[in-house]
Amino acid sequence: MDTVDAERDYERSAAPGRAALAAGRYEEAARLLGAAVNLRPDRAAAHVELADALRGLGRAAMARRAYARALAVDPSCAAAVAGLDGMDRGRQERENFRVGQRLASQRHIGHWTVLEVRRGGFGVVYVVRSSDNGARKVLKTYDTRLLWSDEDRARFEREALTWVRLRPHRHVAPAEHVEWIEGLPCVVTEYAEGGDLAGLLAAGALPPARALRFARHLCDGLRHGHDQLGLVHRDVKPANCLLTGDGTLRVTDFGLARAFDSADADLPGLGELPAAAQALYTTVAGTPRYMAPEQYAPGAVLDTRADVYAFGVVLFQMVTGVLPPAGVPAGAYAGRTAGWRTRRTPLHRLIRACTEADRENRPPDFAAVRELLDGVYRKALGRPAPAPPETPRLTAEEYVSRAVGLIHLGRCEEALGEVEDGLRTAGREGDGDVVLGKLWQVRGMALGRLGRAGEAVAAYDHAVGLNPREPSAWLNRGNQFLAQRRHEDALECYDRALEIRPDIGNVWGVKADALADLERFEEAEEAASRAVELRPRDPNMLVIRALLRGRQYRHAEALVDLDRALAVAPRSAVALANKGNTLLLLSRPAEAFDVLLRAAELEPDDPSTSCNLTLAAYRLERYEEAREYCEKALCLYGATAELLVHKGLIHARLHGHDEDELACYESAVAAAEDDDVWRATAWGRKGAALAALERPEEALACYDEGLEILPDTSWLRDGRQAVLERLGRTDD
Q1: Could you give the CA distance from residue 215 to residue 201 in angstroms, rounded to a whole number?
Q2: For the domain that residue 48 is a member of, what is the CATH number?
Q3: Lowest-confidence segment of 155-169, 213-227, 271-285, 446-460 by average pLDDT
């Protein structure tokens, strides 16, 4: 179908769809506008109109995806931005980072400052500056205006991992590492001084020599990703072709197209859309005008030839300055375009071959594309094409970055392998103590996470011996000691780090943790407040101070800090769990129950959350739910005295006092061997149950056992007095 026909048919669906939307007939509007989107997926306005109809149907998740698809087509689409910003946010959503915002970094002692924000489709790109050395970097993560599930986050990490594993290449922009920043997983990449190919093409076609040079770079970069790891990029386009200061093209975003893709075919709202539009919003990753036809097919398994197609479209755009409409192969479009209609040059044949609608007719891989491209180069420029660049060796610093990224993704054994390779490289290349110290420090991080504490300490000792002026080495060494409950050793390490850099907020935070464990609360409060002052938007620092204040029974102040943490990271399971516990301590069980349910959604197997849900449900007299949460907590935690006491209390509410209740308390007494509070509590609860069963002599013995452990407990004394009165021993 040519452009004129597509436009005519588009308007035939879109016009009545707009009318239905204006009249509030949202189901009809969604059906008609869905058909229109299928005809012109390259038009941002089509996606926006469909999103408006889906919002009218209450299909928020699908509406967000439609707005995001509009931004994938046109990142500057104001209507899509306004639509997303105007939607009612879910309770676990949060805002994107803002220009000027300071972001805490896990990898570096300092912070990132956001210089620029670029949105596009499902992802966001942040240009940032490091406070350590002023270097610019790029952070890539997902757009928080969309609804992202934990499965989406896991997919993002998996796909980012494939990019981290990709070995360096002259024409691939490396993923330096992956780190969590304020609760968001971010891929850290180089900053392209020369901008990107999309910016260059905004001025029109390139001279043939320059276009063919960039085509070689793009071909070689994609070939490297395909050959080394079998990666299908899925979103090859000029915006993903970065340019260095010397004019070298480097492919970026390997794997991220698949990370931003949703394979959920059961999203609400699909029933109102035509099948083709459903496919567009459920299985498609990429930018419509560069996408191969097979990318529109639901559930299609893509291979290298999808990227070959996009390469052909980019090459056509470079040499003509024109971008074909979505769904029209570049070669076929060129055959009907003035100036190309009668041309059958090697370049035309290459573009036509790469953009065949049937992938079986395209070159099978980028080795074949390179061979064809070399022939075009010779014909056009009269000289042989330069050979593909050799893959360079990794430097020791690059091994450090790769290992850190793997640790953040939970691949610690793999990280140790990278460290070993890095140490061999450093020895061979004669790298200095600074780089060697980093490698030993990263080794300690991996060993610590693997539970190999002694080896981790030895690695940190080696690191600080090589470079005693590196504060992060002292910090990580201290963290290892803290995990081993060696508080004084940990504090010594933290103080050494702060002597070097007193402005490191997370060192103040972990120092506060160590001081609190030693009940040095005044010093801990000072350290925690200093941490929050230095990193006011770091939820971890706010949670540390909240926990410290909770230990001192300052629950109202703790709640303020937890709310601040959740304002930054609404899906922080640790902040939600601690807020729920704090609300319980403030005798606000209904609010606590709601917050704890959200924590359980994020961390369903956290035993403390199940325990607190038990207590909240019990206080709300929701005893069946309390029983279920108690049983789950017992499975996760084991038979603790606290849970066994709760189990007995719940059983009494559901079934009355009986031998099963008494058995719970007897088990609790045995489980509380080293816990005086819960052992006394279990004796007292058993006494109360026996009294209710008209067995006062046995009840009195239980109260006596409890008071022997905690003689000043008023409720035990009150219970004992009531039993004595029942026995007629009023003088006692």
Answers
A1: 13
A2: 1.25.40.10
A3: 271-285
212 and 129 in one domain?
Answer: yes
Are residues 53 and 117 located together in one domain of the fold?
A: no
User: By C-alpha distance, which of 166, 315, 183 is closest to 255?
Assistant: 166
Could you tell me which residues come within 8 angstroms of residue 76 by beta carbon, excluding any fewer than 6 positions away?
Answer: none
Give Cα separations from 74 to 7, 42, 104, 569 (angstroms): 18, 9, 31, 29
In a domain, 678, yes or no: no
* Secondary element (H or E) of residue 613: helix 607-619
344 within some domain = yes
Q: What is the pLDDT of residues 521-552, one digit of tens each?
A: 999 999 999 999 998 888 889 999 999 999 99
Reported as type and span, the H/E element at residue 31 is: helix 26-39
Report pLDDT digits (tens) over 371-410. 999 999 999 888 998 988 887 788 898 899 889 888 877 8
pLDDT: which is higher, 581 or 357: 581
What is the pLDDT at residue 263? Answer: 42
In a domain, 224, yes or no: yes
Whether residue 127 sits in one domain with residue 32: no
Q: How many residues does the chain have?
A: 732
- The whole-model pTM stands at 0.70
All residues at 6 or more sequence positions from 101 whose CB lies less than 8 Å from its CB, including other chains: 113, 114, 537
Distance CA 135, CA 441 (A): 22
- Whether residues 20 and 135 fall in one domain: no
pLDDT tens for 121-153 read 567 889 999 877 788 998 888 777 665 555 666
Domain of residue 78, residue span: 3-86
